[in-house]
Amino acid sequence: MPRQIVMDATGDTRHEFDASDTVQLAQAEERFRQLTGTGFTAAVRRPDGRAQVVRSFDPTAEETIFVPRLQGG
C-alpha cells in the first residue's frame, strides 16, 4: 500500500492510501500539493533504494517522503 511520510519537528507522520480508491487517491494528491506548496521537498524511494526528488504526485510510488525546508540561523 502506498504511503506518504511527512517529516517535521515532532518526528514523522505516515499516511497510507489505497491507490485504487478514488477518494483516498484524491486526498493523497491534495496532501502532496499542500505540502509542496508550503515548501516541503518531496522525494520518492526508487527500487534501488535511492531517493529521487519529485515535483509532481506519483500515485504508483510506494513511498513518498516530505522533508521541510531547512532554515539557517
Task: Describe the structure using short key phrases.
single chain; 5 strands; alpha+beta; five-stranded mixed β-sheet; 36% strand; 73 residues; 22% helix
Report on this model:
It is a single chain. With 73 residues, the chain is α+β, with helices and mostly antiparallel strands. The chain has one domain. 22% of the residues lie in helices and 36% in strands. It has a 5-stranded mixed beta sheet, with helices on one face. The radius of gyration is 12 Å and the shape is globular. The relative contact order is 0.27.
Radius of gyration: 12 Å
Helix content: 10-25%
Order of helices and strands: EEHEEE
- What characteristic shape results from the CA principal axes? globular
Q: Helical segment tally?
A: 1
Number of domains: 1
**What structural class results from the helix and strand content?**
alpha+beta
Q: Kindly, what is the distance between the CA atoms of the first and last residues, rounded to a whole number of angstroms? A: 39 Å
Rounded mean pLDDT score? 93
- Trace the largest sheet across and list its strands: 2-1-5-3-4
Residue ranges: pLDDT <50 for 5 or more in a row?
none
Largest sheet: 5 strands, mixed
Strand fraction: 35-45%
Q: What is the total tally of β strands?
A: 5
